[in-house]
Every structure is written in structure tokens, then in C-alpha cells.
Amino acid sequence: MEELYQLGIKEASELLSSGEISPEELLEAVLKRIDEVEDKVKAFVTVTKDEAYKRLEELKSADSTTPLYAIPLAIKDNICIKGVRTTCSSKILENFIPPYESTVTERLNNKGYVLVGKTNLDEFAMGSSTENSGFFTTRNPWNTDCVPGGSSGGSAAAVAAGECIGAIGSDTGGSIRQPAAFCGVVGMKPTYGRVSRYGLVAFASSLDQIGPITKSVYDAAVLLNVISGHDHRDSTSAPVEVPDYTETLKENIKGLRLGVPKEYFIEGLDREVEDSVKEALKVLQELGCVVKEISLPHTGYAVATYYILATSEASSNLARYDGVKYGFRAESKELLQMYQETRAQGFGAEVKRRIMLGTYALSAGYYDAYYRKAQQVRTLIKNDFDEAFKEVDIIVTPTTPTPAFRIGEKVSDPLQMYLNDIFTISVNLAGGPAISVPCGFSSEGLPIGVQFIGRHFDEETVLKVAYNYERATEWHKRRAEL
Ligand code: GLN
């Protein structure tokens, strides 16, 4: 049998409910794995070992038939859990202990999960490699000289390394899908509004969405079932019914129309990534899907549009960290100086860069030229998707232009770093759901991901295509050796 820490949610749940393993055995296997490999991977900001054992005690009197009963999960450290330090991997929140619980973790709690720890991220989720973390860089379990992707790099690395059974991340411009692709696991961004953002520390509120990072598509469906649905505490959460994704994903995909946008097969796309995605399309054709070329003509504007809107929203959202309301406060004799010093010392370079960019784009005289214009282009990008979805059911693209890059390779060049999200960002701007699934390995042994994008609130079709593809291939079965 596989080691227990390598199990996914589905397999672990089956073994637990048949009594073949106990909650203690499962938790111990995961915590032991963390002890063994965490030095190399550095996925966690906080490991909640004592809380996890306490939680098992509590679960003894709970309903053992809930879908996440005794399942050890890791949560990205920008999601608030009552009484557990939540840092956003920022010095400014280093000692922040939320007095309230996010809706997502409350729902996970109600279904029996066990928290094993809070995972590292790029500070305030701004980045693509975890190198912007205020604390340390997480490493890719497939090659520890490489980045795990970001910003949910800690969650993706923890899943790939077997340091948890599944995880939760957040995705503003690709932060679930890109690290999932780099780490050879499944990562899904739901439709904007599908999952409550209550308790998610805001980066760019019109783009942020919480989603699962897992070892299989089925597991993503299990977590999505639990975390989805309307929440009166988030005014942007949508009152849309949630189907049972674990049932709908089994449906046949014969006759489904897949669109391949020509704008995504561009210069700079790695040869091995391109070949793997084309291979994936062949597999889907053999499963009965019809593949056709489509066009998303405004793709070339997505990165620029995103970096105006995301930084504008961030500059506003991050105004609250002033040394008075939360976390860190710099020593100072006078109020204004205290504000300034707190922010100067508390925020890292990338966060400061974005606050400045956003403040600039929103300022009088530039607002029309940048912010308003970017909003208009956002609509054009969304319209591209709406048009495409008149002809196809799912859009298929690479998740990233290259496999994981080396630690340090792009830190000194923010533009290169930003371009890493070229294939994921449009989806956040348009608002729909998308998943990244393993579809191959580079000659260096690094994972490659394929992205399936769907219509708004049509997570069902996205998961269905991903599930059928996964079942027809073996990529998801490989495990990183550490
Ligand atoms: N890498 C992108 C950024 O730096 C997206 C991050 C995210 O999705 N949180 O903003």
C-alpha cells in the first residue's frame, strides 16, 4: 500500500470509514511526514500540531460520516482561522491572531476536517513564486532548487510533498492554478462569487477567489462541495445553487466542444509545455471531444489590465494596515510618523511597489487614463470569453508558459515574473471557473499543467472534463521524491 501521507481525500476517507485506518494513524503519518521533509520544502508558516490532536479528541463525539471527517488539510495563511496566527506571510501581520473564522474554514470545520497548518505565500498573495514571502521561500518538492509557484506555493508544495491530504489556496491572477501546475497537483479557481471571501485577507477584491489544491480532480470536487454556496457575510457571493460535483464529474464527455485559443500558443511558450498540452488534446479527442481553434482577441492586454486593476484595489485594501488596527506597530513619538514607519518596516518591496502603482493609477488626472481604461478593457476580455462560449463548452490552454523556474531566476525582474501569469490572469478578469491538471513532465522531471476554463458557474463541466482526462492518463500518479 501507498504510504498514508500520500493518500488523497477520497482514498483516506474510504480507509477511515471502513475502519482500516484510524484518524490518529492518518494524522500521525502526516505530521511525521512534515517532520521529515519540512526542512527541505518549507511549505508552512505555522504547523498546528497541538491543535490537530485536540481536534481529533473533539471529533470523537462528532458525526463520522461527514465528507472531511478526520482529513488533515493545510490552509493558505491569508485565510483567517479564529485563534490561529494568520500572517499573509507579511511582517505587518506577523503576530495577528484573528478573532473570527473565515466562512470557508467554518464550512470545512462543520464537515470534520483537521487543520495541520497554515501555508506560506507571497506576501499578501502578490507574486508567482513565494519568493515575496516576508519570511522564507518555499521549495518545489520535485526539485528543491526550483520555485513551487505562487502565491499559493506553500499549499501546492505541501500537497505535492505529502505534508497534508489536501489544501486550500486563493487565486487572484493564477495563484492556485500556477503553483498546482508547477507542483504536479490539481488546483481549481471557482467562478467569482461561488465561494465566500469572508475571512480571506483582501488583495484585489474583484478578482480574489478561494479554491482547492488536491491530489486528484475528485478531491477538488469534494472540497468544492463543502466550501461553495451563498454567504450573507460576503455581498459578492452568489445565491446560485451548488450541485454535487462528485456526482456530476462522472458524466460522459462525448461530443463536448473544446476550444483552443490561438493567442495562447505564442512565442515564449516552452516547447515541452506545448507538446504536453497538444498530447492532452489528443487524449480528449479520443474520449469523444471535438477540438476547434478559437480566438480570444484581447488576450494580449490581459497582463497590463490586471496589473492596473489588481494594484489599484490592493492600494485601497492595504490602507488598513496602519499600526493601529492590526498586527505590527513601529515605535514612534508621533502619529503620522508611526503610520509611515509601520508601513515602511512592515511591508516588503513587492507590496510597496504595488501600493505605489495602484495609488498612481487611481489618482486624479490618471484615473481616466489608467483605471477607467483598464476597467473597459476588462469588459472586452470578458466579452471575448462570452463569444467563445457560444461555440465551445470548455477552453483548453497551457496553465503556464514554462515549467517551474529556478529560485532567484526572476526576482530582480518583476515584469518577467508578471508574465508568468499570462495564461491564468484573463480568467480572473472574466470571472469564470478554471482548473489546472497534471499533463506531463519536462525532460528535467518538472511537472506540466493543462488548464480547462468553463462558463460562469459551470464548474460541473470543468470538473467533468478534468476528471475524464485524469482517468485516461497516469500523470497524477507520480509522486515527488524528496
Ligand atoms: N501572480 C499574480 C500576482 O502576482 C497572481 C497572484 C494571485 O493570484 N494571488 O498578482
Any overview of this molecule?
- The protein has 482 residues and is α/β, with parallel strands linked by helices.
- It has a domain at 4-255 and 434-477: Amidase signature (AS) domain (Amidase signature (AS) enzymes, Alpha-Beta Complex), CATH 3.90.1300.
- The chain has helices at residues 9-17, 23-41, 49-59, 103-110, 153-160, 177-183, 217-227, 245-248, 271-286, 302-317, 335-346, 349-362, 368-391, 414-419, 425-430, 459-471; strands at 44-47, 72-76, 114-119, 166-171, 186-189, 209-214, 257-261, 290-294, 394-398, 434-441, 447-453.
- Strands 1-3-2-4-6-5-10-11-9-7-8 form an eleven-stranded mixed sheet, sandwiched between helices.
- The longest helix is centred in the last third of the chain and has 24 residues, at 368-391.
- The two termini are 19 Å apart.
- The mean pLDDT is 97.
- Residues 125-128, 151, 171-175, 203, 310, 421 line the site of glutamine (GLN).
